[in-house]
Design goal:
The chain is mainly beta. It has 3 domains: 2-119, no CATH class; 127-161 and 318-367, no CATH class; 166-278, Thrombin, subunit H (Beta Barrel). Helices cover 7% and strands 51% of the residues. Strands 5-6-7-8-25-24-23 form a 7-stranded mixed beta sheet, with no helix packed on it. Strands 9-29-28-27-26 form a 5-stranded antiparallel beta sheet, with no helix packed on it. It has a 4-stranded antiparallel beta sheet with strand order 1-2-3-4, with no helix packed on it.
Amino acid sequence: MRKLLMYSLLIFIILIITKYAFSNYTISYKLNNYEIKEVYKNKRFYFEIKDENNKVYNFDIYSKRKFFKTKISKIKVIQDETFKCIYPVINKLNTYPLCYSNNEFIDYNLIDSPLLLEYKNETINVDKANKDFIYYNNLSNDEYIALWNYKGYIIMNGKSYQNVELFKKDKYDNSLAYLLNDTIYMANNDEEHEYTSLVTINLTTLNKDKIDLGYTIDFDSYIVGNIRNNLYIFDNKYAVLYEINTKNKKVKIIANNEKGYVKYVNGEFVSCSKNEYKVNKIKFNTNDSKYKYTLNNGTYKAINENKKLLQKINNNDINIIKEKDNKIYYNFEDNFYIYEPFNGNNLIFYNYELTFNSDNTMFVYIK
């Protein structure tokens, strides 16, 4: 009986600790003249701060919570006649200034002021010189970028890069390529008009492989997307939807004129028309973002919790390739960058054709 009581008490304590120390939460509190709303969910903190003039600033940070609820302990004001920033201080969490200038919220890295220098992390890049491709050594060891170079890829990671050739012939169009986890899957470009296999390259190991499809697919096709480890390709010429299991390399037809057509919605396949593939080019497993981006003589970002609060993060209209937490991987003209609030915009590489050939030529994988 005593053991049973002890076990019950232990389970109760574990449940209480889990509920109050590690679970999601929403709290509101005041700090001097500021009203603060804080939401923690799935390793992400979201903050809204309202000042005495009812101006609302917001930001988020990706981090695991500690035993106690996290709170802003101090707010520092940084301002001159052209801008005002508030700098929230949180114990054991890095933050950054939140700024308002010229009637809009703006990333502090875009404001040229000595008052903000101590908060900026300057990255020094080498000169571009007269080369077709230049890598600036600004990736971490967990970040991989693959750049299509007509026969294969330039694969960048950490402080180095390698050229990996996959095909014998040059091919400009790289639309039949898809990144799933750490591996790029591509139609075999060495075949003519139709392809019977996929060629793969693992970005972390650089290992190459091939998947024999057992079917002939026209190059007039597109990759619909993936569901877990299954890859889906629609042959537009013959109106056939294929499912490729990338683990066991088995391939099957799941939709055609005889079987009818299906699409993936809310975790299940449902019936649809052929035109949704042939005309609308529907996709599976498009990633939901916590942000919305607007291009209007600059790039503006809004956090989904309050889409009315637009923040200017770049002075140019950029082409976003991938998003990871609050990092953005993007290109502008012939340069590829990573943006994050803590470090601003860091240059990763230059390629002389990037402006005119950015669709499906770059893939980003983060471990």
